[in-house]
Design a protein that fits this description.
This protein is an alpha/beta fold and 437 residues long. The protein folds into 2 domains: 6-160, Rossmann fold; 164-195 and 235-365 and 387-430, 2-Layer Sandwich (Dihydrodipicolinate Reductase, domain 2), CATH 3.30.360.10. 28% of the residues lie in helices and 19% in strands. The chain is built from 11 helices and 15 strands. It has helices at residues 6-15, 45-54, 74-80, 90-97, 110-122, 137-150, 164-174, 211-215, 242-259, 369-377, 387-403; strands at residues 35-40, 59-65, 85-87, 103-106, 126-130, 154-157, 181-188, 266-270, 283-288, 295-305, 329-335, 338-343, 349-351, 410-414, 419-420. A 9-stranded mixed β-sheet has the order 13-12-11-7-10-9-8-14-15, covered by helices on one side. Strands 3-2-1-4-5-6 form a 6-stranded parallel β-sheet, sandwiched between helices. It is globular and about 60 Å long. Bound molecules: nicotinamide-adenine-dinucleotide. Nicotinamide-adenine-dinucleotide binds at residues 40-41, 43-46, 65-68, 71-72, 90, 107-110, 112, 130-131, 157, 159, 213-214, 216, 229-231, 246. Nicotinamide-adenine-dinucleotide (NAD) is lined by residues 40-41, 43-46, 65-68, 71-72, 90, 107-110, 112, 130-131, 157, 159, 213-214, 216, 229-231, 246.
Length: 437
């Protein structure tokens, strides 16, 4: 009989509802059957992810990794998690802690999601990775396959997916509250783009930042203050996915899940020409999907971002009754029986209001997106944004990013073969290139 893995031991301890004393040296060093976690990127959203993961009663932190321990508030975290060790390099952390780690969270800038998550998964760790799952489309495909192959518990960081409003909306749509849906409009008035010139300064790297590790697999360049770190990287094509990756992934989620949308057949963008530096500050993307049980056959899906979004003009689908305004971010579903507006984040509104009268309110409760992942590791729950779902969702976003490089051109997509079939120049953008660092 093969030796039980740490995962089996954690699961069976949880199932028995007990704290288990592991024979010392079996796998890992946790004395009590807890889920031992390591965290890559613990500043910004990573700080919040860390708090949410460690609020689970059965977690023990063993590793903390950040290339900027000041931004990551590492000292404060170490003072509360006395058994944890700090590393600047996630490769060293995983190599050194090895079997002591059960599960890894990755909350770095987008370009590091793939190398860090892949390494953790290859070592058999369960992973919670921030959205969008990856920077390049092929990377999302690979992580989805890896999760399946290794039978790992995965979750992508779209925590609003688990909110009552979003769960309720999904159920209502599937119960046909607005009939079959013919159009979805999704938008964010945020602008994570940069139309400016190339950076022509070189600034000193702050003492606390390891710039080489921050760049990771991305090509080498000089540090420029307030251009990349923290947070600004999402505007730049080598590191982020623009507004589509920042907000689109959250806002696409409900229509995609509720309507059962699968890989798009095509995508086209309206935006400025690419400049190789930043994402366009304003974008429109149209996607073509095959109809599903919840849509009409002529279903259309449109995204806007940047100042002025949604660019609704006189579009009657987006006109609201007197005195009401569209939220700055959200989705409008146009169905055979009426429209549903889902603000990001909030409860859905129906037009006409009578749609809701007499509608049965499904018995839906909020889930804790983070605890769901940890409970699933213990075999007590299932994740609802595991990579089986989050991988294809991220691919849709990455395909939109690719289309933004060819404004005005419709890209026909062969998802099975991961290929744009009518524009060869688009295909090199599906995969990444990786620097040794
Ligand atoms: N789910 C959400 O609501 C939500 C909200 C904000 C951000 N995010 C996601 O969280 C991720 C981080 O975004 P942010 O706004 O916090 O960025 P940020 O730049 O503020 O923070 C990133 C953190 O990762 C650290 N880091 C960078 N490279 C690293 C590396 N190679 N190894 C270890 N640590 C590294 C940085 O020092 C910093 O502490 C992104 O993927 C973003 O899309 C999600």
């Amino acid at each position: 009989m093969k030796n039980p893995s740490r995962r089996d031991v954690v699961k069976s301890a949880a199932a028995a509802g007990s704290l288990l004393i592991l024979p010392s040296g079996l796998r890992g060093n946790s004395p009590n059957g807890k889920i031992c976690t390591a965290h890559v990127g613990v500043g910004g959203m990573g700080n919040s992810d860390f708090g949410s993961i460690t609020s689970h009663p059965n977690v023990q932190v063993v590793g903390l990794c950040d290339v900027d321990p000041v931004h990551g508030k590492v000292e404060e975290k170490l003072s509360k998690h006395k058994d944890a060790q700090y590393f600047a390099d996630y490769r060293e952390m995983l190599a050194e802690l090895g079997d002591k780690v059960d599960a890894v969270s990755v909350s770095t800038p987008d370009h590091t999601h793939y190398p860090a998550t892949k390494l953790a998964m290859e070592m058999g760790k369960h992973v919670y990775t921030q959205k969008p799952l990856t920077h390049k489309l092929a990377e999302a495909r690979h992580l989805t396959e890896l999760a399946r192959e290794k039978d790992l518990v995965t979750q992508m960081g779209i925590q609003v997916h688990s909110s009552v409003a979003y769960r309720l909306t999904r159920q209502w749509v599937q119960e046909g509250i607005i009939g079959k849906v013919s159009k979805v409009y999704v938008w964010s008035g945020k602008s994570w783009g940069y139309d400016g010139p190339a950076f022509d300064r070189v600034d000193p790297v702050p003492d606390q930042l390891n710039w080489n590790l921050w760049l990771g697999t991305a090509s080498e360049r000089d540090y420029v203050d307030r251009a990349y770190h923290p947070g600004k990287w999402r505007k730049l094509v080598d590191f982020g996915c623009g507004t589509l990756g920042d907000m689109g992934i959250h806002i696409f989620d409900t229509p995609v899940k509720a309507l059962g949308l699968k890989d798009p057949d095509w995508v086209e963008a309206e935006c400025r020409e690419p400049n190789g530096i930043g994402f366009p500050e304003q974008n429109m993307m149209r996607y073509g999907f095959s109809g599903t049980d919840y849509t009409t056959d002529d279903f259309t899906f449109t995204w806007w971002d940047g100042a002025g979004a949604p660019r609704s003009g006189e579009n009657p689908d987006l006109v609201l009754p007197e005195g009401q305004t569209l939220p700055s971010q959200g989705a409008m579903f146009v169905g055979e029986a009426g429209r549903m507006l889902l603000p990001h984040v909030g409860a859905p509104k129906f037009f006409p209001r009578s749609i809701l009268e007499g509608a049965k309110k499904p018995d839906v409760k909020a889930a804790n997106h983070y605890h769901q992942w940890l409970d699933a590791i213990e075999g007590k729950d299932e994740t609802s944004a595991g990579f089986d779902y989050a991988g294809p969702l991220s691919e849709m976003l990455c395909l939109g990013v690719i289309a933004g490089n060819f404004p005005g051109k419709r890209l026909n997509w062969d998802a099975k073969n991961m290929k744009v079939t009518n524009l060869e120049a688009a295909n090199p953008l599906i995969t990444g290139t990786y620097r040794d660092f």
